[in-house]
Specification:
alpha/beta, 11 helices, D-Maltodextrin-Binding Protein, domain 2, five-stranded mixed sheet
Length: 309
């Protein structure tokens, strides 16, 4: 048994949660991928995955092995780098970000990233999954307004706010709400998550207090870009991140409503487990995202900035 290949196969399946996708990553057949993992299980005397027709999940033994296996592969990659002329950074970095932020700010910057780091493979996962804080299998995760995991290194990229937005045509036809409770009489475009399939409530600030409103839904989406498109089309008032509406607000495609009731700022943070961030290629991705992308965001007050520890 080639233990290094078997370990690589195990990590690929653990990270993709699929023998088929792992096989495609390693350019092997699914049958060969299964054979490598089976031989590793036989060698270790434990079962690493629970397999069903629908999903592949790590067992307790598999979860315990994963960090060690990733470290072994990274150490081998580091040893390879040390022998290459120029010492260019190589490796694979798994990054998870909200879909709307990824499309708006990260994907347009990838050409510059490729120019700087041609040998780093970036696995970018774009997904809007509500408030589920899923970090398994990722080197770096970007979150907005969520409490960082204890023990993870955190880098503040900036801050943003949730703002109410509408097209000028919508405001001319239906008027503008003057207070948060007035949205009950308007068409509203809501973000729907797994926890709130009918649409998440909106939060405003009024008199120093937070006010939560559950507007009536004309449309619900689980994607920020779709919400913005619906607002531009005049389908209703939307509540979305100001950072995503920057260009629309500058061009006048959208206007803010209820601007006197904007909720407190939300931290935009990049996080990673300490052991992963210490790897040079992971650190390079973290540096690129924080230094090469023009976030153009406000600063948070010091007492709410997650510190890098």
């Amino acid at each position: 048994m080639d233990r290094l290949t078997a370990m690589e196969a195990f990590v690929a399946v653990a990270e993709t949660r699929s023998f088929t996708r792992a096989a495609a990553r390693m350019r092997l057949s699914p049958a060969m991928m299964t054979l490598h993992v089976s031989r590793l299980e036989e060698h270790l005397g434990v079962r690493l995955f629970n397999r069903t027709t629908r999903r592949v999940d790590l067992t307790a033994d598999g979860r315990q092995l994963l960090d060690h296996a990733q470290a072994v592969l990274e150490a081998y990659a580091s040893a390879e780098r040390s022998t290459r002329p120029g010492g260019a950074l190589t490796g694979r970095v798994r990054l998870d970000v909200p879909a709307s932020v990824g499309h708006a700010l990260i994907v347009p910057a990838l050409a510059e990233f490729r120019r700087l780091h041609p040998d780093i493979v970036l696995d970018l996962t774009l997904g809007d999954r509500g408030t589920f804080f899923r970090v398994d299998g990722f080197d770096l995760v970007m979150r907005i307004g969520e409490t960082p995991l204890s023990g993870w290194q955190t880098r503040l990229l900036g801050t943003t706010r949730l703002v109410a937005l509408a097209s000028p045509d919508y405001v001319r036809e239906h008027g503008e709400p003057l207070r948060p409770e007035d949205v009950a009489h308007h068409r509203c475009v809501l973000y729907a998550s797994v926890e709130a399939p009918g649409g998440n409530p909106w939060t405003f600030a009024e008199g120093g207090k937070r006010v939560r409103i559950r507007p009536p839904a004309s449309f619900t989406f689980n994607d920020g870009a779709a919400i913005m498109a619906a607002a531009r089309a005049g389908l209703g008032i939307a509540h979305n991140l100001e950072m995503l509406a920057r260009r629309d607000l500058e061009t006048g495609t959208l206007v803010k409503v209820l601007g006197d009731y904007v909720a407190p700022p939300l931290a935009v943070v990049l996080m990673g487990a300490r052991a992963r961030i210490e790897l040079p290629h992971v650190r390079a991705v973290m540096d690129f995202l924080s230094e090469r992308i023009d976030w153009n965001l406000e600063s948070l007050e010091q007492d709410v900035i997650p510190s890098e520890a």
